[in-house]
Amino acid sequence: METILVLAHTEADGSLARSVREALHAAATLHKSLAGSKLVVGLIGDKVQTAANSIAASPATKYFGVTGADFTQSRYATDVAAAEAISQAGQATVIVAPATSRWARVLPGVAQRLGGRADTHVTGVAAADGKISVSRWYYRQRMEGTLTRTLRPWVIGIDPGSQTACDCGAGAAVVEMVAVTLTDAARRTTVVGLREPQADAQTIRPDAQLLFVTGAGWTKKQADGQTHVPEAEKLILGFLKQARASLGSSKSLVDLGGEGQTVLPFLSHLNQIGQTGATPRHAKGLSTCCHGEEPHTVGWRFINERRAISLDPNCGWARGKADVLYVADAFAVITKVNELLAAGSAA
Ligand SMILES: Cc1cc2nc3c(=O)[nH]c(=O)nc-3n(C[C@H](O)[C@H](O)[C@H](O)COP(=O)(O)OP(=O)(O)OC[C@H]3O[C@@H](n4cnc5c(N)ncnc54)[C@H](O)[C@@H]3O)c2cc1C
To answer: The CATH number of the domain where 130 resides is what?
Structure first.
């Protein structure tokens, strides 16, 4: 009989991130399809009662907590000790956790300490005939593999954004506190602060509804025989700021910098979408000044609704790669869209 533990840490304000609700949804679905299984939740943080209450209507029958100032910050030594103690208290055989940056560092260590195994980048968990299987993508998301394990405990890191979030409501949860004895060495590392780019500089936003893709056309000579890179920069950043979209790019555009041409300074290879780039998951995508060639559009596999703006009516987007192609000048279209967005937010 499996005992499925959802392992989570609280956010700085004591709440639970969406990725926790996603892991909980995956675990609850697994629990439902595994007769005789138990579902429990383990929470780690300064205080966990508010977080536990926020998901109290979930099908979990028990809540465990490790709390205190030592467990507020993201620190391997204390996180792994807390996770190990909760897993043992809950007698977990399957441990499902969101692969946040904090947990991704810790989960393989938890499996090692418990004599189990860990699988990362999991995007699906299922059970059939009493057998659990997980799925994940390989080879730059071109092949999906499904695997099972007999060894327990089995630690499963769920990729954030790959599941629907559990909408289990709030209530009053009874949290059983688990004591963890820490050595001084475990407290040696201290997080002294967080540095993050300003909102305008942070162009990759995995949680955004919209992926906004820029192609090399933004830097090419336009109808007047001139390039308009500073104007392109202003339009793109203006759109990103107002639409809170995530910024993707074609390879040609990010490569231009390496070839000594004038490029958009906020783009790097991290923004590249495609065969040799990323395959992000967003509800919608809007491509601009990009030709829509196969090595690029293969990275749009998980984008549900696709639109493109290109001057070329015979571009790849017109050949079945996009739901809607606007044959238009992206400079003119995005100028107008930015005006409408500004008017909308002012209204
Ligand atoms: C092995 C391999 C791997 C690759 N991997 C990737 C990858 O991971 N990702 C990737 O993106 N590419 C990849 N490529 C490259 C890919 O094949 C294309 O060369 C690249 O995507 C082209 O980029 P682009 O469409 O931005 O540029 P271009 O082909 O130069 O197209 C620019 C487009 O902008 C349009 N345009 C210009 N001005 C305007 C305007 N004012 N308004 C509207 N439209 C305008 C033009 O009509 C044109 O269609 C790979 C290639 C190979 C061989």
So the answer is: 3.40.50.620
Does the beta carbon of 242 lie inside 6 Å of ligand 1?
A: no
**Residues whose CB falls within 8 Å of the CB of residue 103, separated by 6 or more in sequence, listed in order:** 7, 9, 79, 97, 157
Q: Where are the alpha helices (DSSP H) in the chain?
A: 18-33, 49-54, 76-89, 101-114, 229-243, 251-256, 294-297, 330-346
Nearest CA to ligand 1 atom 52: 295
Q: What is the pLDDT of residues 201-232, one digit of tens each?
A: 778 988 899 999 999 999 999 999 999 999 99
| Residue-range definition of the domain harbouring residue 56 | 3-187
Q: What is the pLDDT of residue 200?
A: 64
With CA atoms as reference, report the closest residue to 246 among 270, 223, 265, 225: 270
Question: Is cis: bond before 153, omega within 30 of 0?
Answer: yes
Task: Express each pLDDT in 129-147 by its tens digit.
Answer: 999 999 999 876 778 999 9
Tell me, yes or no, if the pTM score tops 0.90.
no
**Residue 269 counted as domain residue:** yes
Same domain? For 155 and 215 the reply is no
Q: Report which protein residue has its CA nearest ligand 1's atom 41.
A: 329
Q: 289 C-alpha vs ligand 1 centroid, how far in Å?
A: 8
Contact 20, 8 (CB under 8 A): yes
Please state, in angstroms and rounded to a whole number, the distance separating the CA atoms of residues 304 and 94.
Answer: 32
* DSSP-based three-state secondary structure for 124: strand
